[in-house]
Amino acid sequence: MFRKKHTQNHSETQPVDEDAEIRELRAAIGPLSGRSLMYCSDACLRRYLVARSWNVDKAKKMLEDTLQWRASYKPEEITWPEVAFEGETGKVSIANFHDRLGRTVLIMRPAFETSTSPEGNIRHLFYLIENAVLNLPEGQEQMVWLIDFTGTSYKNLPIKTVREIVHILQNHYPERLGLAFLYNPPKIFHAFWKVVKFFLDPITFQKVKFVYPNNKDSVELMSSYFDTENLPGEFGGKATLKYDHEEFSRLMTQCDVKTASYWGLDRKPHNVTNGHPKLEEVPEHALLAPPAT
């Protein structure tokens, strides 16, 4: 597939051979192993190239930074028992419906934010983002955020935490956000937005949509992306949004098993045979147990 590419040295556009660019980026990052190798699929490399306007050197730097972050932060190892307490209010959850393009939907309600731990708050969110990414329907690479700002105040929007979330999302999850719908933002949010928008790169900025109740343009926008029969009333639809923490916890526990299987976390080195570690299965109850304190 070819697409137009803008260069810093030429005003006219040039065609890009995407497959060749992906091969060049793969060669540039060099040999990989383990989870880094699994992470760096061709689709992944393409997302980093798109995020850096098909500049291989910049995409390489961005990808290397992500691999270092993932090796340190280990987002794929976060399990629901570690972050479940952060989700008790239903402030962030994965919807049981998709948008019209079949994309996974994350529902966020900042007014339900009660966390006293910025780190716990961030880990909870990126646990759900990792989960949403792993469970994207075939052929989809992006998710959609529905953010209901009804009842939100400044205390629900810690600027330092928001800034850290934006940094991680933009630098380590490129091209994973399809659209973010900011529904019914209060007047105080506009002052907050003036600060936040400086953290956003132009591509992310364009993906943010402000929508308001009883606004014709907003209603048409939402109905163009969602079936109103599935869309919760909090976002102008006809469905009822009810967060059941116990039921959601059961779903996330099942997803933890899927995540562990995908990344090979349900296997561990046992001994070495012919220079290679032999793997053995880890019992499911041990996998899902909360970390020792």
Automatic annotation (TrEMBL):
CDD domains for this protein: SEC14
SMART domains hit by this protein: CRAL_TRIO_N, SEC14
Residue ranges annotated for the CRAL-TRIO domain, each copy included: 82-243
Coiled coil: none
GO MF term set: phosphatidylinositol transfer activity
Xref: InterPro entries: CRAL-TRIO_dom, CRAL-TRIO_dom_sf, CRAL/TRIO_N_dom, CRAL/TRIO_N_dom_sf, PI_Transfer_CRAL-TRIO
Signal peptide feature range: none
PANTHER family associated with the record: CRAL-TRIO DOMAIN-CONTAINING PROTEIN C23B6.04C, GH16843P
UniProt protein name: CRAL-TRIO domain-containing protein
Annotated source species: Kalanchoe fedtschenkoi (Lavender scallops)
